Amino acid sequence: MEGPSLAILKDEIKHLKGLQIIAAKGISKIDKHDLIGKTIKQFKTWGKHFLIILPDTTIRVHFLMFGSYRIDGEKSGSPQLSLILEGGHEINLYACAIRMIDGKLGDVYDWSADVMSTRWDASRARKKLKSIKGMMISDALLDQNIFSGVGNIIKNEVLFRVMIHPESMVEALPPRKLTAMINEARNYSFDFLRWKKKFELKKHWLIFTKKKCPRCSTPAIKKYTGKAKRRSFFCPNCQTLYR
Question: Residues 144-157: pLDDT tens digits?
Answer without folding.
Answer: 999 999 999 999 99
